[in-house]
Fold these 2 entries.
Entry 1:
Amino acid sequence: MDRHDTTASDRERLPAETLSPLATRVDELLALYRYELTPAIDAINGAVAGYGGLFDPATSAAEIRTAVDELLESGSPPAQQAATDADASRVVLYVDGSAHSNGPAGAGAVIQADETPIARLGRPVGSRTNNNVAEYAALHLGLQALAARCDPESVEVRIDSMTVINHIWGNSESTVKATPYSTAITDHLSALPAHEWTHLADSDPNPADAQATVGADIAALGPG
């Protein structure tokens, strides 16, 4: 099947750690929107009755669940909200994971071509998940989106996690347990014609950070 003809329902959803029923349902909607956070959240906010929204403290879990269920039952998102695929010979992939102190974690990824974002992605990873797992999930999220949307000649992965860098690109054995992400990451990387990685210092801008933070906020939703 051609990647441009693959519908959201045909694509395999990304693996997740433990999430509340409500966060799981929101993650299902994100998959429908190809993990594009902005159009998915805008749709939820528009479907919530009254003046509330996904992160409005006045919105109950039941109201969010009703809105998300309605959107999922309606099928594919409107064409103007669907993310577009891109043809670019070289792309830059920013990835980042975020975990709140009490465990909710999210993953973020931003794909750029010629310094122009072509995808801004985010998702919840788990309600009790550490930052390392979120970092792996972020890399997986970005690479899966690349495989589905782009056909670049080369990719530069910009990432701040030395744990992931040493495990994925290092020469020594790692004790980090990252399943089910690590094998899929390796498979995606091996399918690329060429790729390189760049370590981002804490002071370097990373547009994926904001996406990951929102993903962690979604992971904190519950119970639903």
Entry 2:
Amino acid sequence: MDEFSTSQETRMNTLAISQLSTLRWSFAEDANAYASRGFNGIGIYRPKLEDFGLDRTIELLAEASLSVTSLSWVGGFTGSDGRGFDEAVIDAMNAVRDAANLQAGTLIVLAGGQNNHIRNHARRTLCDALKEIVTIAKEFGVRLSLEPIHPGCGDEWSFVNDLQSTLDIIETVGSPHLGLVLDTYHVGMDEEVVRWLPDVVPHLHLVQLGDARHSPLGEMNRCLLGEGCVPIRTILETLREYDYNGPLEVELIGEDVESLSYNEILDHTKTFLDQMTDRVEQR
């Protein structure tokens, strides 16, 4: 088997769906539906984990042969969600322990909104929090991934909006246990994203695939993969060129998919990914 075939096989083994895509389903419905379609991974949403229970989750995922590509999310260290700094850090440390028990590929971090802080203060607050949390993450063997969020739909979630800012924070914290999530919905419509990928890949823990018919504005609104403006094929080809072999996790939420059943969304997603994989392979 040649090197590309090995890489492609690894990638196929880590195709995942985020539970945010099937938010109204139970945990068991998620696991059964994903596994029955040939997905091998699941992006876990913490409220669903809390409702279902950690021990039951571990047992269910073993039965379904699903690996955990991500646990989502921790953060809000700037106080933008009403919690204090210490409370948000303690919550993140608890999530690190859950991620370790789940053998999750990464624990996703959202910085929090700027929350009337000057930007430099918000950045220092985030870096201070990450330095505390990576100490625990190292102890438990967990990787943290900072996710840049498009300012058009996520100012209250994160003041970190682009790849350069994300890489700068990773460099400041200086831990191999901190990397990033690249969500194509949030950064994929930036014409510079492909140029940034060679710098991003060494720090990249997870790629989340999302598409949209226009740049994010207001509520998050993703469309079915391949029906929007995000150059998914180009991004995947570039990631392959620079040897990204990590998980591909799909997240689909918003008005453009609300009229579709979850079964329709999952079926379309699997077909799209299978076709896209073939095209990338033939390039």
